[in-house]
Design a protein that fits this description.
The chain has a single domain (about 5-185), classed as P-loop containing nucleotide triphosphate hydrolases (Rossmann fold). About 45% of the residues lie in helices and about 25% in strands. The chain has helices at about 15-25, 55-65, 85-90, 100-110, 125-135, 140-155, 170-185, and strands spanning about 5-10, 30, 35, 50-55, 70-75, 75-80, 95-100, 115-120, 160-165. Bound molecules: guanosine-5'-monophosphate. Guanosine-5'-monophosphate binds next to strand 5, strand 6 and helix 4.
Length: about 180
């Protein structure tokens, strides 16, 4: 049985990872897709679990051979979702969530109009900057690059199906559950 595809996007530091982690703990029948990236792994990230970490050459090879459902360049690195991975999960009847940037999300929607796009917004831009700095995973140059992306992300989010403001974790998770349950009904 084919299921719907859910796409969750949000600016760096908005806490979408935490919202999704909590959602997945409460809803074990859902899974996150695993993307390919040319970004270096952060401490604790595992190849094949958080991402498939590949070289720029491998990434280019996948683009040239039409292997990606979507891909995007984000803050100097490449990220992409393999068609094969998603099609196999959907055909197996799995509930799958893509956590990808807004450019990728809109590309997915063009190819799969039934996909449901959900954008997680920060309570304010100041809160977003504080969160991004507070997690100490990026250097200053990377933080600046990611902050520059925010404006574009918010513009693209206007074309999303739903928006969730992450000012409280529990509320954001409940809202996500509500949207997904309604769309899957
Ligand atoms: P990070 O480097 O923080 O893990 O991810 C940076 C951005 O890339 C995030 O907005 C994340 O959602 C996005 N991203 C992760 N995987 C993919 C993907 O496969 N495609 C696209 N377009 N964006 C992705």
């Amino acid at each position: 049985m084919n299921k719907k595809l859910f796409v969750v996007s949000g600016s760096s530091g908005v806490g979408k990872g935490t919202v999704l982690k909590k959602f997945l703990e409460k809803n074990p029948d859902f899974m996150l897709s695993i993307s390919c990236t040319t970004r270096k792994p952060r401490d604790g990230e595992v190849d094949g679990v958080n991402y498939f970490f590949i070289s720029k050459d491998e990434f280019k090879h996948c683009i040239d051979n039409d292997k990606f459902l979507e891909w995007a360049e984000f803050a100097g690195n490449f990220y992409g979702t393999k068609k094969k991975f998603i099609n196999r999960c959907l055909a197996d009847g799995k509930n799958i969530i893509l956590e990808i940037d807004t450019q990728g999300a809109l590309k997915v929607k063009r190819q799969m109009p039934e996909a449901v796009l959900i954008f997680i917004c920060p309570p304010s831009l100041e809160a977003l900057e504080n969160r991004l700095r507070g997690r100490h995973t990026e250097d200053e140059e990377t933080i600046q690059k990611r902050l520059k992306e925010v404006e574009e992300e918010l513009k693209r989010a206007e074309n999303f199906d739903y928006k969730i403001i992450n000012d409280n974790l529990e509320n954001a998770v409940c809202e996500l559950e509500k949207i997904i349950k309604e769309a899957n009904a």
